[in-house]
C-alpha cells in the first residue's frame, strides 16, 4: 500500500489520503481462477454426459484464457489503476454461461427447437471482448462522453424505436425488440441502456441543483417543480410507449428504474423515489389492464401452475412453472453439471431461462454463488462511483451499475417467480449476442471510470512550510 | 463415470465456485482505500475519521531529525480538554496552526474557535511562542487573554473556546 502526503507525526491521529495501489497482479491471479472455474465446469459436463473429457477442452480453455489474457494485458497498458475485480467476475460469468449453453446444446432433441448455439455465443463473446478492448483503448477519458449528452439521447431514442419499424418474426414471441439484418438479429435495447445512461448522467449533472433545491415542501415531501418534472414525465411516457408498441416489459422497467435511481442519486431527494414508484405502479397497472401480452405475464406470475391444471385458462403459459420445477429438481446442492433434467424447461432455455438450468444443476448453493458474483460486480461499480471525483463519472458509474443490477433483478426475479416474467437476458450468461457485447462495453466504461478514480492524485506542489504540513483531526 | 466421481465433482465445483466468491471478497477487503488513520494514544476510541474503510495502524517510527531541539524542550503538544482531548502532535520545529479551517494543523471542532484562531511556533532560540491570530473569542494563556505573542512553557494551559492545549516534554 502506498501512501502519499507527508506525515511526520508519531503519536496522533494522522489522516493521509491514500491512493489505491495498482492491482493488476491481483487481477491476473483472479483471472486465472476465473478461467479455471468454467474449464472445470466444462470437464464436469463432458464427464457427466459422455463419460470422457470433452475433446474441445484444451481449445476452449486456451481460447477463453487467451481472450482474458489479452484483455488483461490491455488493461495493464490502458487502465493500470482500474478495479481488479470486474474483469475476472465478468469473465467467470461469461464462461459459465458458455458452458451451460454448450451443455444445453448437448441435450439435443430433448429440448424442442434446439440448435447448437455455443460456438455462436463464443464468437459473440469474442466480439464483446473486442469491443471491451476498443472502449479501453479509444475512450481516453470518460468525461469525453459528457459532450455527447443530447446526441446520446437522440441515439438512444432511435435505437429504442427502431425495432417497432422492422417486421417481427414469429419466433420473437410477441416482443418487438429485435432488428433482423440478414442472418443477424440485434437487440438495440441492450446498447440503448448504456447510451441512455450517458444522457441521464450528463443531463442530471447539469440539472441536479434545480431538481434538488427548487422544490416545494408538501406533507413532509419535497415536491419538484413542474418544469423540472418534465424529463421524468417524458421518460415515463417513453417507457410506457416501449411497453405498448414493443410489448417489452423488461426494457421499460429497466429504463424507468434506471432513471429513478439516477434522479435519487443526483438529488438525494426521497420524494423522487416515491414519485417514481407511484408512476411506475400506475403505468404498470394501466398497461396490464389493456395490453393482453402483459396481462398474460401478470396472470402467469400470480398463478404459475394454472397452465398445468385440467382447465388451463386461455393464454396460460407454462414457462414460470417449468422453471420452478427446475429449481425444485435441483434442490440445495443441485443435480450436478450435465446431470439435470434440462428438458424440464422447454422455452428459451439458453437465454431468459438459463438461470433455471443453473438452479437445477448447481442447486441453491450454486445459484447463490452466481448471484453473489453479480452482486460483487455491481458493488465494484458502485464503489467506483464513490471513488470517482467528478460528478459526471459518479452518475455514470451509478447508472451503469444500477442498470446492470436492475437487469439481473428483473430476470432473476422473473425466473424465480418473484415478479412478473419479462423478456430480458441475464447479463453475460444468457445466449444473445447483443447482450454479451453490450455488457462487455458497459464493464469497459466502468473500468475506465475506475481507472481515473483510483489513479493517485499528483503530488501536491511543495509549499513553503511543506515539512510542517499535516492534517490532524479527530 | 462412476457415481462417486460425479458426486465429488458436483460438490467440488460448488466448493470452487464459492472459493472464488470468497477470494473475490478478500480482494475487496484488501482493496479498501481512501484515508489512512494512524492511531493515537487516545481516550476517545470512536474517532469520526476511523470509519470501516480506514485502516487502524500503529504509530509509525519517527523519521524526522530532531533538529534545533534543546534538551528539556517540549516534545509534544497535547489537547487536554475539549472534543479533541487526547490528540497529540509531535513538536519538530514546525509551526502549528489551530482553528476550524481545514488546513489547520489541529482542526478544532469547537463552536467557539475561529477558523484561523492561533498558532504556536518556535522562535530563533527554540522557545515556543503562542500567538493569537485575531480570533473572535480570544486565546487564553493561564486565564490571561493574549494580546501579543507570548512565550510558552511546558504545562501552561492554552484555552481556545472549550479546548485546552498544553505543551509537554
Task: Describe this entry's structure for a reader.
The complex is a heterodimer of chains A (474) and B (169). Chain A is mainly α and 474 residues long. Helix content of chain A is 63%, strand content 4%. Chain A has helices at 24-50, 57-78, 86-106, 118-138, 149-165, 188-213, 226-246, 249-267, 270-290, 292-302, 319-330, 354-387, 391-415, 433-454; strands at residues 14-18, 179-181, 184-186, 215-218, 221-224. In chain A, the strands form two sheets. Chain A has a two-stranded antiparallel sheet with strand order 2-3. A two-stranded antiparallel ribbon of chain A has the order 4-5. The radius of gyration of chain A is 24 Å and the shape is globular. Mean pLDDT of chain A is 81; it is low at 1-11. By secondary structure, chain B is of the alpha+beta class. Chain B contains one helix and 13 strands, in the order αβββββββββββββ. Chain B starts with a helix and ends with a strand. The model of chain B is unreliable at 41-69 (pLDDT under 50). At the A-B interface, β1, α1, α3 and α12 of A face α1, β1, β4 and β6 of B.
Question: What's a concise summary of this model?
Answer:
The complex is a heterodimer of chains A (474) and B (169). By secondary structure, chain A is mainly α.
Features of the shown structure:
heterodimer; A: mainly alpha; two-stranded antiparallel sheet; 14 helices; disordered N terminus; B: 169 residues; alpha+beta; 6-stranded antiparallel sheet; 5-stranded mixed sheet
SSE blueprint and pairings:
The complex is a heterodimer of chains A (474) and B (169).
Chain A: E1 14-18, H1 24-50, H2 57-78, H3 86-106, H4 118-138, H5 149-165, E2 179-181, E3 184-186, H6 188-213, E4 215-218, E5 221-224, H7 226-246, H8 249-267, H9 270-290, H10 292-302, H11 319-330, H12 354-387, H13 391-415, H14 433-454
Antiparallel strand pairs in A: 2-3, 4-5
Helix pairs in contact in A: 1-2, 1-3, 2-3, 2-4, 3-4, 3-12, 3-14, 4-14, 5-6, 6-8, 6-13, 6-14, 7-8, 7-9, 8-9, 8-13, 9-10, 11-12, 12-13, 12-14, 13-14
Chain B: H1 3-30, E1 34-38, E2 56-57, E3 76-81, E4 88-90, E5 96-99, E6 106-107, E7 118-122, E8 128-132, E9 140-141, E10 144-145, E11 150-151, E12 158-160, E13 163-168
Parallel strand pairs in B: 1-2, 5-6
Antiparallel strand pairs in B: 3-4, 3-13, 5-7, 7-8, 8-11, 9-10, 9-12, 12-13
Amino acid at each position: 500500500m502506498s501512501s502519499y502526503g507527508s506525515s511526520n507525526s508519531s503519536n496522533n491521529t494522522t489522516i493521509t489520503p491514500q491512493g489505491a495501489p495498482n492491482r493488476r497482479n491481483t487481477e491476473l491471479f483472479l483471472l486465472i481462477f476465473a478461467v479455471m472455474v468454467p474449464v472445470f465446469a466444462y470437464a464436469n459436463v463432458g464427464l457427466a454426459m459422455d463419460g470422457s473429457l470433452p475433446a474441445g477442452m484444451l481449445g476452449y480453455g486456451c481460447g477463453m484464457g487467451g481472450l482474458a489474457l489479452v484483455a488483461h494485458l490491455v488493461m495493464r497498458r490502458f487502465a493500470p489503476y482500474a478495479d481488479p475485480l470486474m474483469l475476472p467476475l465478468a469473465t467467470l460469468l461469461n464462461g459459465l454461461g458458455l458452458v451451460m449453453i454448450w451443455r444445453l446444446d448437448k441435450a439435443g432433441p430433448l429440448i424442442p427447437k434446439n440448435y447448437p448455439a455455443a460456438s455462436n455465443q463464443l464468437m459473440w463473446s469474442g466480439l464483446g471482448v473486442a469491443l471491451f478492448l476498443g472502449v479501453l483503448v479509444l475512450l481516453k477519458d470518460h468525461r469525453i462522453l459528457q459532450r455527447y449528452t443530447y446526441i446520446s439521447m437522440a441515439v438512444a431514442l432511435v435505437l429504442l424505436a427502431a425495432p417497432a419499424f422492422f417486421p417481427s418474426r414469429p419466433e420473437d414471441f410477441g416482443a418487438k425488440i429485435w432488428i433482423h439484418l440478414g442472418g443477424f438479429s440485434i437487440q438495440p435495447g441492450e446498447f440503448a441502456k448504456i447510451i441512455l445512461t450517458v444522457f441521464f448522467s450528463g443531463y442530471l449533472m447539469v440539472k441536479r441543483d434545480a431538481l434538488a433545491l427548487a422544490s416545494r415542501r408538501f406533507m413532509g415531501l419535497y415536491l419538484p417543480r413542474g418544469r423540472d418534472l418534465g424529463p421524468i414525465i417524458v421518460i415515463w411516457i417513453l417507457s410506457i410507449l416501449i411497453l405498448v408498441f414493443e410489448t417489452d416489459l423488461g426494457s421499460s422497467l429497466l429504463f424507468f428504474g434506471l432513471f429513478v435511481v439516477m434522479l435519487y442519486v443526483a438529488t438525494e431527494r426521497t420524494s423522487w423515489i416515491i414519485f417514481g414508484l407511484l408512476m411506475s405502479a400506475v403505468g404498470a397497472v394501466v398497461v396490464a389492464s389493456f395490453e393482453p401480452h402483459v396481462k398474460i405475464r401478470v396472470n402467469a406470475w400470480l398463478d404459475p401452475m394454472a397452465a398445468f391444471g385440467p382447465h388451463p385458462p386461455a393464454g396460460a403459459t407454462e414457462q414460470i412453472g417449468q422453471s420452478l420445477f427446475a429449481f425444485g429438481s435441483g434442490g440445495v446442492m443441485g443435480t450436478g453439471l450435465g446431470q439435470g433434467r434440462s428438458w424440464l424447461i422447454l422455452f428459451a432455455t439458453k437465454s431468459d431461462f438459463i438461470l433455471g438450468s443453473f438452479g437445477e444443476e448447481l442447486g441453491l448453493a450454486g445459484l447463490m454463488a452466481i448471484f453473489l458474483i453479480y452482486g460483487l460486480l455491481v458493488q465494484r461499480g458502485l464503489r467506483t462511483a464513490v471513488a470517482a471525483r467528478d460528478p459526471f463519472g459518479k452518475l455514470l458509474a451509478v447508472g451503469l451499475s444500477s442498470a446492470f443490477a436492475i437487469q439481473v433483478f428483473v430476470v432473476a426475479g422473473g425466473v424465480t417467480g418473484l415478479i412478473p416474467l419479462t423478456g430480458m437476458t441475464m447479463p453475460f450468461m444468457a445466449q444473445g449476442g447483443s447482450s454479451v457485447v453490450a455488457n462487455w462495453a458497459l464493464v469497459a466504461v466502468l473500468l475506465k471510470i475506475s481507472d481515473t478514480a483510483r489513479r493517485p492524485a499528483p503530488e501536491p506542489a511543495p509549499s513553503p512550510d511543506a515539512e510542517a504540513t499535516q492534517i490532524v483531526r479527530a | 463415470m462412476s457415481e462417486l466421481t460425479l458426486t465429488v465433482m458436483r460438490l467440488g465445483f460448488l466448493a470452487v465456485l464459492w472459493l472464488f466468491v470468497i477470494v473475490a471478497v478478500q480482494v475487496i477487503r484488501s482493496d479498501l482505500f481512501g484515508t489512512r488513520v494512524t492511531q493515537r494514544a487516545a481516550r476517545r476510541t470512536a474517532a469520526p475519521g476511523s470509519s470501516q474503510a480506514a485502516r487502524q495502524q500503529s504509530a509509525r517510527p519517527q523519521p524526522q531529525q530532531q533538529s534545533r531541539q534543546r534538551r528539556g524542550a517540549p516534545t509534544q503538544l497535547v489537547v487536554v480538554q475539549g472534543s479533541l482531548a487526547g490528540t497529540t502532535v509531535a513538536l519538530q520545529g514546525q509551526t502549528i496552526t489551530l482553528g476550524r479551517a481545514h488546513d489547520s494543523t489541529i482542526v478544532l471542532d469547537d463552536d467557539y474557535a475561529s477558523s484561523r484562531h492561533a498558532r504556536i511556533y518556535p522562535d530563533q532560540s527554540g522557545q515556543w511562542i503562542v500567538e493569537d491570530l485575531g480570533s473572535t473569542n480570544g486565546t487564553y494563556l493561564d486565564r490571561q487573554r493574549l494580546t501579543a505573542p507570548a512565550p510558552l512553557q511546558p504545562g501552561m494551559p492554552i484555552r481556545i473556546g472549550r479546548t485546552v492545549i498544553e505543551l509537554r516534554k
